[in-house]
Amino acid sequence: MSVLALEGATYRYRGATEAALDGVSLAVEKGRSLGIVGESGSGKTTALRLLLALTTPSEGQVLFDGEPLLRRNSGQARRLRRAVQPVFQDPYASLDPRMRVDRIVAEPLVSLGVELDGARRRARVAESLAEVGLDAEALGRYPHEFSGGQRQRIAIARALVTDPAVLIADEPVSALDVTTRIEVIELLDRLRRERGLSIVMVSHDVSVVAALCDDVLVLQGGRAVESGPTLDVLSAPREPYTQGLIAAIPRLGVEP
Question: What keyword terms does UniProt attach to this protein (predicted)?
Answer without folding.
Answer: ATP-binding, Nucleotide-binding, Transport
